[in-house]
Amino acid sequence: MRLASLAVVAAIVSLSGIGFAPHARAAADALGEHTGTITFKLSAADLGAGMSWGKGVLTFEGHDYPFRIRGGSGAAIGFSTTHATGTVYNLYRIQDVEGTYWSVQGEATVGAGRGGAVMENNNGIHIKFTSSSSGARLAFSVERLTLRLTPDAKAVVQAKGDAAGNAAAPHQ
User: In degrees, to the nearest 5, what angle opens at C-alpha 30 toward C-alphas 26 and 34?
Assistant: First the structure.
């Protein structure tokens, strides 16, 4: 019964047009300094508790860093694919983007839907995004997503670190 009540609230909020995107826009002032942009595609499959997975690209200091996302949620049923774009706040070292992000989200997708959220990790990085989704999914839950840079992105970060170290080293 509780799941049904949450599902009804999520559907009403999402279908009424008030959704979460206005709240995400209003929160931008309090999130900190805009330091990057992000795009990602996320798939979710749920039956009560669910799994999410996907990939994306972070643009930071003029470079693109590919990443993967994995996570889970509760109080959801269905399957959807979400395409999102957003802004990253308070990112000063690329390594700090990695970690587990938390958010509270609602989704009511039947065919197509729109949404948005603000996520935060333990390093103080905030990601505010808007999204469009397709599929059939009803959710109102806490979402936990873990973002990891791909091995290629980590190699670029390592190479940049090595170059900076060599430039700072005294010549003998």
Answer: 95
* pLDDT higher than 70, residue 86: yes
Q: What is the pLDDT of residues 107-157, one digit of tens each?
A: 888 889 888 889 999 999 999 999 999 999 988 878 899 999 999 999 988
Amino acid symbol at 94: I
pLDDT of residue 159: 87
Q: Report, in this order, helix, strand and coil percent for the chain, each rounded to 5.
A: 25, 60, 15
Tokens of 19: 């959704």
Nearest CA-CA partner of 56 in 47, 44, 64: 64
Encode 73-88: b = buried (16+ Cβ within 10 Å), e = exposed. Answer: bbbbebbbebbbebbb
Structure tokens at 109: 């997708």
User: Across the beta sheet with 126-149, what order do the strands follow?
Assistant: 34-60, 63-89, 126-149, 99-120
Distances in whole angstroms, Cα of residue 38 to Cα of each of 34, 117, 163 = 11, 13, 26
